[in-house]
Structures are given as C-alpha cells and as structure tokens.
Amino acid sequence: MIFIGEQIIESLNENITFPGVSVKDYYAVSKLTTPLITVNEMPGIPIRFFDGQPYVVRNSYQFETYGKAQMLDGNPVSAVEVAKQLMEQTDLILNTVFGLTQVGDATFAPLPSDPTVIRGVVRYRGDIDTITETIYRE
To answer: Which residues contact 121 (CB under 8 A, 6 or more apart)?
Structure first.
C-alpha cells in the first residue's frame, strides 16, 4: 500500500487561493467551519505485479467542499458558488500536480443539519507506482 493523501493536503493548503479556506483529512474534522475542503484517501487494490509483488495500486479519493454564502471583494457569493469555486481550484491542482482522474460527476447539496452550508462531493482515482510514487493516468 501507498498513501499520498498528506502530500495532497499539503499541496492544496499551499495552492488554494480562496480566502480563509482550510484543507483537512476527512477524519480530522471535529467541527465544521467553512470554507473547508476535506480529503479522504482510500487504499485500493493492486493492479500490476512484478515478481509476485504489487508495484502499481489504484487508490481512490473523495474530496468534499463546504461553503456558506459570504462576501468576496465586496460582492455577495452564494454558498453553492463558494463550494463550486473550491471544487474548481481543487480539481486544477489534482490534475496538474498529481494527475488524478476524476470518477463521475461532482454533486452539490445543502447539509441536512445546516441548510445554509452547501457540500460538494467528487471522487478521483490514481494508479500509483509503489516504488517511485509516479501516478499513471488511464
């Protein structure tokens, strides 16, 4: 198994330009504060072997963005727009820096516990070389 979730979180924290955003591991969030991006890395299955040992594994990732309506540069921005902007910036980094492949469509919906917060969800996967940590696209 190989994990790159911490590297993804670090890169998102360094490169997301949306004001005040936090990027955290999904399981490290104890209290929801917006704007927020969470990363959930799920170890996958070996898909290529060398000498009987897995050398490429397919990991899956779920990214969630949380946004509330707010003012940006003196202009009102809706909660769904905040969540979408966070998703767009995340997608750019996941594609250009990590080469992850999006699986399916992103979805956006209000949180049942707080309808003023919009939650966006999207999944990615990456085929990762266990020795070099190279990520292969399909």
So the answer is: 62, 63, 64, 106, 107, 108
Instruction: Say how many CA atoms lie within 13 Å of 2 toward its Cβ.
Output: 18
Q: What is the DSSP letter of 85?
A: H
Q: Give the model confidence (pLDDT) of 82-105 as tens digits.
A: 999 999 999 999 999 999 999 999
Tokens of 83: 């969540």
3 state DSSP class of 13:
helix
Distance of CA 21 to the CA centre of its chain: 13
Contact of 40 with 121, CB cutoff 8 Å: no
pLDDT digit string, tens, across residues 104-127: 999 999 999 999 999 999 999 999
Question: pTM above the 0.90 mark?
Answer: yes
Rounded distance, CA 138 to CA 130, Å? Answer: 17
Radius of gyration of the chain (CA): 16
